[in-house]
Amino acid sequence: MGDGMKWRNFFVGGLCLVALVACNNQKPETKSADQAAAVTEDGVQQAAKPAGTIQGKAKEVLSGGGFTYVLIAAEKGDTWVAVPETKVEVGEACTVAEGQIMQNFPSKSLNRTFAEIVFSPGIEGKKPAMGEAHGGGAAGAPGATPGAPAADGAFGAAMQHEGGAASAPAASETAPGSGKAVVPFVELKIAKATGGNSFTVADVFGKAAGLNGKKVKIKAQVVKFSPQIMGKNWLHLQDGTGDPLKNTHDLVVTSAGKAEKGDIVTVEGVLAANKDFGSGYKYAVIVEDVTITR
Fold first, then answer.
1. pLDDT value at position 12?
2. CATH topology for 45-167?
3. What residues in the chain have per-residue pLDDT under 50?
4. How far is the C-alpha of 237 from the C-alpha of 166, rounded, in Å?
5. DSSP string of the chain?
6. CA distances (Å), 194 to each of 40, 84, 200, 219, 223, in order?
7. Annotated domain spans of the chain
8. Same fold: 45-167 with 198-293
9. Contacts (Cβ under 8 Å, ≥6 apart) of 120
10. d(C-alpha 31, C-alpha 167), whole Å
């Protein structure tokens, strides 16, 4: 083969290689359903997947816009979290409740943008001062700061006021149980409570519309207990009924009383259907302010 032919083949091969690289670079990035996120016009990105519980010590504490911003030294690295205004000391051990990840969040009050921050309804064991100062929302949910627009519940409104309309969390569909953390199905066989207004976990989901605003009684096992979030204790209850594929097996109740995980309890309180506490915390069914007996 002559030298001219060799150089022509080499040149054509080089052009093909450049074209192939360019095509690969221009290939749109694909994301799984868990990675997908909504990006607003202002560049604020809300993760589709909520954040789990965060544990660690407070390295830095800032306040503004009705929120307390805490830099948590967690096992997986430093993480900024925002909770309704709460007294937190530097060096204090904190367990931050499950929340929602926001990216490129612009805090008006602090005049800074957080590359990634978790907005949580509270720190376990601490009562938000925000709920007291502003009167709270339904069932003690944190109240919005003065002048905050009422969007997506009081907590969501406070987020919107602090970060601008673009940062308000997108409304999520109401899902049975906690949209944030449904406890996996536990194999149980617990007898239904006795007496009037007694129901199984499956019953309250199936009859939620007719039971809305009415007192109900349920006997079940505590499968998760989270103390003092938004001024209340939060319990997940299961009795072995319900459909785990539809998340109708896991009932959330709130109470001033306490219980341990594994306790079999009878609770009695008022059922609320389609309850929205804001920030994506929506419940198809929740029973509020229950009394707990064993």
1. 41
2. OB fold (Dihydrolipoamide Acetyltransferase, E2P) (2.40.50)
3. 3-49, 130-153, 165-179
4. 36
5. --HHHHHHHHHHHHHHHHHHHHHHHHSPP---TTT-EEE-TTS-EEESSPB--EEEEEEEEEEETTEEEEEEEETTEEEEEEEES----TT-EEEEPPBEEEEEEEETTTTEEEEEEEE-S-BTT---HHHHHS---GGGPPPPPTT----SHHHHHHHHHHH-GGGSPPP----SSBSS-PPPP-----PPPPSTTEE-HHHHHHTHHHHTTSEEEEEEEEEEEEEEETTEEEEEEE-S-S-TTTT-S-EEEEESS---TT-EEEEEEEEEEEEE-STT-EEEEEEEEEEEE-
6. 51, 40, 11, 9, 21
7. 45-167, 198-293
8. yes
9. 51, 54, 81, 82, 83, 96, 97, 98, 99, 100
10. 22
pLDDT in tens, 241-271: 998 878 899 999 999 999 999 999 999 999 9
| Residue in this structure with the two tokens 């830099």, named with its chain if needed | 71
The pLDDT tens digits of the residues spanning 77-104 come to 999 999 989 999 999 999 998 887 887 8
Quick one: tokens of 86? 């709460």
Q: Is the torsion defined by CA of 154, 156, 157, 163 positive or negative?
A: positive
Q: How far apart are CA 230 and CA 142, in angstroms?
A: 7
pLDDT of residue 157: 60
- CB burial of 116-153 (b: ≥16 within 10 Å; e: otherwise) equals ebbbbbbbbebbbbbbeebebbebbbbbbbeebeebbb
Q: Is there a contact between 82 and 118 (Cβ–Cβ < 8 Å)?
A: yes
Any idea which residue has 């617990």 for tokens? 190
Domain 198-293: CATH architecture, name and number where available: Beta Barrel (2.40)
Structure token digits, residue 120: 């949580």
**CA atoms of 107 and 13, how far apart (whole Å):** 52
Q: How open is the CA angle 288-102-88, to the nearest 5 degrees?
A: 65
